[in-house]
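[job 4471] stage=fold_predict status=RUNNING
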Amino acid sequence: MTGTTITSGLELRSLVTAAGRLEVSLVDVPVPTLGSDEVLVRIEAAPINPSDLGLLLGPADVATIRAEGGAGRPKIVADVPSKRLIAIAARLDESMPVGNEGAGTVIDAGENARHLIGRTVAVLGGAMYAQYCVIRAGACLVLPDGTTAREGASAYVNPLTALSMVEVMRREGHTALVHTAAASNLGQMLNRICIADGVPLVNIVRSSAQADILREIGAAHVVDSTADGFLDTLTDALEATGATLAFDAVGGGQLAGQIIGCMEAALLRKPGAYSRYGSPVQKQVYIYGVLDMAETRIGRNVGMAWGIGGFLLTYFLAQIAPADAKRMRQRVADELTTTFASRYTAEISLTDALKPEVLAAYARRATGEKYLINPTLDQG
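[job 4471] inference complete, writing structure tokens
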């Protein structure tokens, strides 16, 4: 190693107690001694993704969020309804680090990884809302020269999820896609991928403003779920594209069922397609987000050839060949500032992340509002 004198750093932790209290705070954690194949990364940018909020806030009632602690070590607390504690029994009374991904500079390394010192890298882990991270050198995505940590902060979750959607489509024999909450950073990436690769894509959004965002980047099929005639317009788009696979970020409510129902209706528009059992073409929806915590409802207008399931990036990457995962990561690195560029609403410190008004803003999960934590803004 280079003899770094850094022995500890700030890390954001989330704790849910058995008494039904959420506590989000900053703690000092020791920096472990580096192994020969490990590096020490100074985290300079870490996005707040919807998937992070599930661990950060748990099932707390966000309406009860309040501040405690002093200015130097703020703490956010909130109430967790007792009926929600059962679902998270395994994490009760355990202080948990947060943050799936981030990027920064390698400032120290073990003897086998010294060539990375000074390089900007993106990392995927479970404790990125921290000033420092120790990780295996082989787990780092070395960013191209001139790429900033801000540009590389979201190099894993959204880009690889978007690429995985197209991979799943091809592996399962579908020829087009449907995506909900489609004006998000991830949704915009998916549009750029599909345009470049010639994949028909139906985008479902929740406002005319979101529809405009996608049309400005070239999206051909954009459907506003709040507009009159939504189901008819969706069915028309599904007929035009032949889409029979959807990825749903909303999760709860009736949207997933509406998509399958409209897929069925589009298939039955073909001459001679009628059958008492519905179309034999398989229709599939994968839920990968929970913007709506309600139950998922499926109607009876879906025929008999349909499926609904969950999708998680880490599970998918574990299932595919290492060469395929490497190919996907390389595409992200090559197109980081174009296809996979992310935009952020605000850059905040770890301390800022614990201000009730800031937390309330990023907890809304609003389309177009993505926050970036920069731990270098914190002192001490």
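[job 4471] summary: The chain has a mean pLDDT of 94.
[job 4471] exit 0
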